[in-house]
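Lab notebook, bench 4. The sequencing result for the construct came back, and we need a structural model before the next group meeting so we can plan mutations. Quick request posted to the team channel:

Model the 3D structure of this chain.
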Amino acid sequence: MVSYFFPPLGGGGSLRALKLAKYLPAAGWEPEVLSADDPRYHLRDEGALGEVDCPVHRTPARRYPSLARPLGLVSEGREGSRSLPSGMTRGGGWRGRLRSFLSRLGDLPDQQVRWSRVARSRALKLARQGRYSVVWTTSPPVSAHMVGLTLKRELGLTWVADLRDSWTVGPFFNPVTRFHRFLQRRLEEDVVETADALVCATPRMGELYRRVYPEFADRVTVITNGYDEEDFTGLDGLTPHRGIVIGHAGTFYGARRPDAFLAALETVADERPEMGLRFIEMGTSGLEAEDALDRFARSRPDLISRLGNLTHGRTLEELARCRLLLLVIGNQRGAQTVLTGKLFEYLRLGKPILACCPPGDAADLTRSLSAGRVADPDDPREIERALLHLIEEPTDPPSRKSIEVYERSKLAGEMAALFERLRGFKKIG
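Done. Here's the predicted structure in token form:
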């Protein structure tokens, strides 16, 4: 299993690999993990590593020096910010844009490319010992797939390429030059053509890749993210927060912004002060979203509590004490394929969901389970109406039976079944 993000690196990016490694042994597969040693990454969850009992190999998260440094555009400690997700820069104005442009020139396919070179060498050394039947790589970062590509071409190992987000056809693909766009598309084609199977984390992403690569459509399968039942032990009986508290976990960046929600929150809170509305935000956000949250916190400290980065367990505890849960997916190209992992944990918590998202997989899932209300993420008035509806006309949460298909142990079983098919038949299609 090749995953850049793995505990002690925290955040949603590590959960898919972590839970797969946790539950594969019950399905008859013994995992080994190849991950990154990245002390500069801003999210940590040291305790999560205790969930698995398998070998974990780590290679240094080396990065090429930024071209901004010789021009004096990188201040001391600035390079560490490159460990933030795409879109989460820590500088503004023309200097920030130039710094970002120069920093990204060497990122082919992404800023973890130098890590992947070291990881490929380590993976080859391990694989030549004859210890692996299947190699599974997950992105982002897409550099992880370069490891799978190498093992497939040089050793002929069965390879499953797993996409948590879409690549060149996705909402977060923003190459710095046309040359970078061309090369990334070629790399994506190599991965799709060479991998024995392509696993997509959302239904529409699967449809998209079947449409863009019709000759390889039979290799594409969908295995979503989910929730781990063990993570929710003891949460159902927690004392709720006073008043009507709305919780959000994760990152605001790019088009995924809180502005319209905050405007709606303020309006409803002022018009209905007896409700005791309050927003609890957990996570780290990009510069523009961070500015919006800071401004709101200064002007309306009575309506927002910012808890910063918490461990996964602490985050679930806070969410379990909230009355409502907030999901935001921005209006942007490809957003219909986004189905954030937090939504499945929201469903398991059984709290009404205010889903500020465009038409797509997230909206479909929320509606199909009657789990909340969907609103345009850029329309404060629509968000106000959805929020009031959730408060004034509460409904029962989805039944446990209706969501258990998303339990992590079952999803690991699906992945294991795919491995078995590939081991027997090599190629899908």
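Residues 109 and 184 are 6 Å apart (CA to CA).
Will bring this to the meeting.
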